[in-house]
Structure to design on (619 residues):
């Protein structure tokens, strides 16, 4: 199924001798609006392969469906509806009603791709269950679902407009410019992909060089990263103002897809050699250090030693950035035979039911629980402050996505962001800690 | 629809959406409920300009700097629209903000040069349909014009009102 780069189709404008190379995003968008090519900034209407929607805004979507008078949606097979933000319908919340009405509506519409509480994040549902495949275009409600770009699928985040895409089976978009980030080398001891993306955000946010872009990743360094690591990079990219991100799938990614496609079509899309990029950057993975992003900016990363020593009250591992099996393994590697500091609460959230099961099978959940961690149901949980709410002046270190004031509770609380190694080491030490010393003991 | 012309509220670079224009800690518990427009109006920009909620008038224009309203939930757009803001004109912003705002009836124009060209309290004319931004001294800056569909969404007051109208027309045509 994987194809060589398609021949460049020449339009009338190009017959005068100019070749306009197309980026991955341009090609996928063109294929979904029935065109040979599209121009950056052009407005086009595309029909997606899928539209992925979470439950939090479902009551509003439902009211809007009723206002508009939508009886039947045109393509129930394209809707992927996931309950991931409020996995435990807690006492005092209204989310249990949302769960009921969303489930009932999906049934009434013949939507088979409904994933109730505990199935995990849309991000992982899309990849693990074979919806995200090379060349697919998926409308979703969040920029962090760029994680599906690991398989060469294009996430176009349209927020609450997902309901518009579900009603019409199409929506407008402006063709984004693209940027290219080339990775070389290999991550050093105790360094994770999260440290890389935190470094990229530090470098690329303030000057807006990735703003509105689809960021393509390539280079020999990419092949040294696991699929889980690659998703950690894509998940946090949007903090730079980038619109989405994508990677040309390699053999590792394609094997993953083949095991899950269930015969559904896909096609690898490659950028043309002369495609145009707003920005080109290169990062040497070997030069990346463990990082901590200090509040309140998502681009406020500093080397871990600059934040080390800060006493913490809570630590959390999970989210669409770091809730995958490799993250569970990294946490367990540090926590095996150790104890979380008595004054610290540690929550660990596997990103999906699949991750949960695999982590159990490998004995990782046992290691985490014995170390004093509380394992939560797969979902967004602590990342948006639904669980693990912070009191005034409490300090959290987390693999979650956000660190702005008030994200996890009291506005005076403080949230530091880091990869799973730094978070696990900090949970043990009770203060922000460089994980490399503890990891050295593990290796020894 | 007349071209928006209004008094400018000028903000700087990197204005945070969820923890600047509004306050995430307050809206989080309301996700899924009808927007509490009174509450959103009351918190809109109060952290940056405490007088904003009381003094903003219908038809006023927000001018922002670089990366305006980054990290924004839809309530950020609803808060500005409910405050009467006719149009937002910025140096730059992410694509998500532009979409969320338009979806809820608030046009956002990306117009490099606007921040240095206009002062707080001056009167600006900004037309999303043509992309033309007319400064107090008559000079004109150019933003990317909205597409026809975007203009329809803006004029209808958002995507949902537009679809309401289109579905009603379709039903009427089918008798």
């Amino acid at each position: 199924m994987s194809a060589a780069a398609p021949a460049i189709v020449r339009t009338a404008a190009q017959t005068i001798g100019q070749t306009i190379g197309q980026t991955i995003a341009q090609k996928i968008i063109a294929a979904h609006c029935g065109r040979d090519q599209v121009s950056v900034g052009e407005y086009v209407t595309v029909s997606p392969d899928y539209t992925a929607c979470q439950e939090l805004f479902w009551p509003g979507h439902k009211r809007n469906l009723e206002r508009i008078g939508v009886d039947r949606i045109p393509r129930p097979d394209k809707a992927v509806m996931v309950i991931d933000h409020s996995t435990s319908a807690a006492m005092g919340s209204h989310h249990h009603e949302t769960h009921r009405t969303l489930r009932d509506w999906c049934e009434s519409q013949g939507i088979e791709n409904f994933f109730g509480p505990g199935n995990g994040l849309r991000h992982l549902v899309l990849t693990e269950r074979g919806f995200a495949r090379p060349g697919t275009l998926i409308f979703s409600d969040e920029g962090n679902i760029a994680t599906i770009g690991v398989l060469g699928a294009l996430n176009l985040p349209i927020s609450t407009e997902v309901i518009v895409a579900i009603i019409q089976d199409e929506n407008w978009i402006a063709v984004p410019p693209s940027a290219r980030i080339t990775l070389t080398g290999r991550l050093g001891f105790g360094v994770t992909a999260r440290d890389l993306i935190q470094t990229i955000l530090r470098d690329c946010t303030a000057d807006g060089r990735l703003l509105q872009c689809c960021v393509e990743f390539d280079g020999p360094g990419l092949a040294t990263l696991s699929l889980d690591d690659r998703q950690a990079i894509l998940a946090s990219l949007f903090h730079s103002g980038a619109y989405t991100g994508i990677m040309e799938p390699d053999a590792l990614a394609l094997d993953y897809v083949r095991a899950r496609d269930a015969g559904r079509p896909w096609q690898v899309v490659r950028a043309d050699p002369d495609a145009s990029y707003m920005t080109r950057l290169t990062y040497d993975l070997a030069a990346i250090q463990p990082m901590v992003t200090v509040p309140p900016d998502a681009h406020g990363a500093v080397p871990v030693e600059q934040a080390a020593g800060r006493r913490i009250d809570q630590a959390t591992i999970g989210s669409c950035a770091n809730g995958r099996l490799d993250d569970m393994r990294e946490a367990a590697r540090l926590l095996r035979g150790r104890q979380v500091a008595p004054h610290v609460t540690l929550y660990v959230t596997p990103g999906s039911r699949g991750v949960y099961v695999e982590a159990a099978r490998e004995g990782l959940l046992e290691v985490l629980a014995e170390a004093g961690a509380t394992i939560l149901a797969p979902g967004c949980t602590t990342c948006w402050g639904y669980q693990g709410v912070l009191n005034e002046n409490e300090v959290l270190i987390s693999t979650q996505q956000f660190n702005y004031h008030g994200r996890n509770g009291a506005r005076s609380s403080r949230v530091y962001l880091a990869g799973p190694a730094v978070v696990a080491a900090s949970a043990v030490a009770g203060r922000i800690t460089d994980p490399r010393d503890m990891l050295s003991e593990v290796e020894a | 629809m007349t071209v928006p012309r209004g008094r400018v509220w000028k903000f700087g670079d990197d204005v945070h959406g969820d923890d600047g224009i509004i306050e995430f800690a307050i809206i989080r518990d309301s996700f899924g409920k009808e927007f509490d427009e009174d509450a959103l109006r009351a918190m809109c920009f109060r952290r940056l300009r405490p007088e904003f909620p009381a003094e903003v008038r219908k038809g006023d224009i927000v001018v922002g700097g670089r990366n305006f309203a980054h990290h924004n939930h839809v309530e950020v757009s609803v808060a500005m629209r409910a405050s009467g803001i006719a149009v937002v004109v910025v140096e730059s912003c992410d694509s998500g903000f532009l979409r969320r705002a338009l979806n809820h009836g608030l046009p956002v124009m990306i117009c490099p040069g606007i921040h240095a060209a206009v002062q707080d309290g001056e009167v600006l004319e900004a037309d999303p349909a043509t992309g033309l931004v007319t400064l107090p001294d008559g000079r004109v800056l150019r933003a990317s014009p909205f597409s026809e569909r975007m203009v329809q969404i803006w004029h209808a007051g958002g995507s949902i009102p537009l679809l309401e109208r289109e579905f009603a027309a379709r039903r009427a045509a089918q008798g």
